Amino acid sequence: MSDQIKFIVDNLNKEPFRKNYNLITFDSLEPMQLLQVLNDVLAEIDPKQVVDIREEMPEQTAKRMLSLLGILKYKPPGNATDMSTFRQGLVIGSKPVIYPVLHWLLQRTNELKKRAYLARFLIKLEVPSEFLQDETVADTNKQYEELMEAFKTLHKECEQLKTSGFSTAEIRRDISAMEEEKDQLIKRVERLKKRVETVQNHQRMLKIARQLRVEKEREEFLAQQKQEQKNQLFHAVQRLQRVQNQLKSMRHAAADAKPESLMKRLEEEIKFNSYMVTEKFPKELESKKKELHFLQKVISEPAMGHSDLLELESKINEVNTQINQLIEKKMMRNEPIEGKLSLYKQQASIISRKKEAKAEELQEAKEKLANLEREVSVKTNQTREFDGTEVLKGDEFKRYVSKLRSKSTVFKQKHQIIAEFKAEFGLLQRTEELLKQRHENIQHQLQTIEEKKGISGYSYTQEELERVSALKTEVDEMKGRTLDNMSEMVKKLNSLVSEKKSALAPVIKELRQLRQKCQELTQECDEKKSQYDSCAAGLESNRSKLEQEVRGLREECLQEESRYHYTNCMIKNLEIQLRRATDEMKAYVSSDQQEKRKAIRQVILEQYTKNIAEQENLGKKLREKQKAVRESHGPNMKQAKMWRDFEQLMECKKQCFLKQQSQTPMGQVIQEGGEDRLVL
């Protein structure tokens, strides 16, 4: 209930109501004021409901509100008996009845505005069958129904056009502008042709102009290529500086580092990279794929209106309530094994979230570090170019320090003021809580006293009875007045109906003639509309064909450009390889020994000979080791056998000693000269 009141108060404080309520003031509103608030909300939905309730009878207000709520399809909770209580509560201005109505209306104001607007034109007027026997009345009723059906179709088309996003006026404007430009270009080309034909050697001049245009395009292309190469050179220089900085930092780190610390650092980096590759990046990739699939699904669906969005929101709320109910049922079961598993699952999810957060923080820190290093390199380059930096010195530095001190004192003062405000706010909160507790205690004491006396709920019922009795007296007085007024109104209405019938007879005759003219005009309008639709469809098809041709030509142009760039790159690579091959052949064939040494074949040959010599030395050392092992194999085997025998002997002594301790003494053990003898 508190969430409902909070939602109502928040929406009433917004546009277009601007009530400036809070929870206490709204809850303390009287029934008449609450009914006025409900009437203001209904007036926002339907402007016909703008009425001051004090100047209207309670029965009329209740009837008017009930009819509008019925049009808006509001379903009060409960059955038929609850419907009577709902009507009575609406007349009285009861909070349990009006709060749900306000909550329902403020949740879907835009949708209800649309429904109220349509209800003005789509709710049929019930005409008695006696009046329908008259031809004029029957014709007007039939025309009324036809107009209602036409309104339905027009409204549907209007909604479809609003959601489609196309406008025929813009398309017509674009087509007319394109046709005008086309005509202007054709006229300009014809004028230029006539002007050129009078000049001598115009064919030769046209050829030279064509060549000039080609050379200008080539010049622009070469300038663009030059700019691209400059950019590539600049990026290469930056990359070289970055690599040099990395090399310096690695050398500096390797100078003081130990192999153990380096291994630890490498292991940490390997763990971090493996975590990023095996766990984080696949999860992010799956989430991005899901988002892409969802977005493609949304794009493929037709455009949605506000009513569709409200339906989806209501479905989402229903599903969320079902999920909450299932969670509550699961919590009510209180199974110990599932509770332990849920604890472990929560701990695992918390640890995984912490791990992901730390990994993201580490990644962000690395990116920040790289950006800072890049900025430092740029700043150092700028200082080298400008030969100096702006560093505060002397008096300027002292002024800067004095400014910082003054700002720090101001900051401390402001911080102290904020702390005082916070302390005062805490005291006010505490006093509010104490007052609320005291109010609850007084209410509880009053209830306990009433229960002791046997009259529980006496105060509440007494207030309600007084209010109901006062309302009943007012209603009785109003009924007496309304009966007299109604009898007078019936007489007046009967006289007005008879006057209107006599006045409408000539108008109905004129209406029949106008109806025939209207039918003829509608036929002409339909014919013109069909002609316009056929013309527009032809222009649209021509435009789509031209767009397809332009797209195809652009794609061919792009393919040819990419093929041209690819062939240029391949030619440059082949030229570099050919240059390397010619240099190698020159170095290999030349008589100069130094150039031969520079050749790749010579370098590879020297490397292989060096490797062969190293392997031969290793083979000699291994053969010597094998010889030494063969010579010492026999004595070593004997020594190993002696050790095994000695081990068996010691084991046997151990078992004899254990048996001696476990059995009764059968003899005497004598130790002499480091030997043990058993004497029986």
Automatic annotation (TrEMBL):
Gene3D superfamilies named in the record: Intraflagellar transport protein 81, N-terminal domain
**Record GO biological process:** cell differentiation; cilium assembly; intraciliary transport; spermatogenesis
- Domain IFT81 calponin homology residues, every copy: 3-126
Identify the InterPro entries for this entry: IFT81, IFT81_CH, IFT81_N_sf
Where is coiled-coil annotated? 137-246, 309-382, 504-625
Where mainly found?
A: cytoplasm
One short Pfam name that applies is IFT81_CH
Keyword annotations: Acetylation, Cell projection, Cilium, Cilium biogenesis/degradation, Coiled coil, Cytoplasm, Cytoskeleton, Differentiation, Phosphoprotein, Spermatogenesis
Keyword Cytoplasm assigned = yes
Can you say where in the cell this protein is located? Cytoplasm, Cytoskeleton, Cilium basal body
A GO MF label: tubulin binding
Q: Name one GO cellular component term.
A: intraciliary transport particle B
* Function according to Swiss-Prot or TrEMBL: Component of the intraflagellar transport (IFT) complex B: together with IFT74, forms a tubulin-binding module that specifically mediates transport of tubulin within the cilium. Binds tubulin via its CH (calponin-homology)-like region. Required for ciliogenesis. Required for proper regulation of SHH signaling. Plays an important role during spermatogenesis by modulating the assembly and elongation of the sperm flagella.
Q: Which family does it belong to?
A: Belongs to the IFT81 family.
Recorded hits in PANTHER family, A to Z, give:
INTRAFLAGELLAR TRANSPORT PROTEIN 81 HOMOLOG
Name this polypeptide is given: Intraflagellar transport protein 81 homolog
Name the species this protein comes from: Ailuropoda melanoleuca (Giant panda)
